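Figure caption, in words: inputs first, then the predicted bound structure.
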Amino acid sequence: MENTVENNEKPPDFKEILLSGVEPAWCVDGRCDNTIENGPQMLGGSLHSVVLSAIATNSVFDQEYVDKNLLELHQNGFRLGVHRGSHKHPEDGTCDCGFADKLPAIIQKAKDQRVEITRRLMDVYRENGEAIGLSESEFSQVIENAYKSIEEFDLENIQVKGEKLVSIGEGNGAVAENLEGDHGETVCFVNLKENTTLDTIGMNEQGTQAFNLDLWMAMKQSESLGVSKDLAMGGSLILYQATEMVLVEDNGKTALPVVVRP
Ligand SMILES: [Zn+2]
Ligand SMILES: [Zn+2]
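Bound structure (zinc ion present):
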């Protein structure tokens, strides 16, 4: 099947919900756990900024590193969250959080698809440039700077993933959501509006699913761990696009549109 960013169906509207600031992090996953309130969505929940922090410093991403950074996030006032899903297979070490399970493949994809990912992100910028708050050349520089760190990062540094990684999160007090059902996302939202997220529970109730990255929160948490603004913004977008490629396109499905929500 030929992958294309064009989609005949109009993506669903972004169903906004206000956050009070105490909700635990959720993943970008479009499925939901009805028993836990919606929280700010990032790749693997709290794992997002810890991964970017490891990339920023080309650090070994092992239990010690993850423990140290989750503690720091907690001390910085962020409520920790990770998740499992109904397709977990603990005997194979998978938790059904695609980001946690496929972390090395996602970073590899980001490295391999630099040209395509950069092209797509520049297209996303051209549609919603003003909302991101940078000129086109500034945004292009952000992506280029983020790629310097991603390309220098050694994949062998990733020593924990999947169920092991989610268990480390829980060991640090993270809430672990259990996402039910199958994936049916039709769009990848990038939400820029502070203190809001996608009402993933409400979306599922109305029979629609969307990936959502709360870029405002991903940047806040990453920068609180010492990640530069360029890597916090560019790295978040690059890894989000690479995650979509691994979880959606590598499963033979059509590429999903990335839509910035100002
Ligand atoms: Zn399964
Ligand atoms: Zn996940």
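The mean pLDDT is 95.
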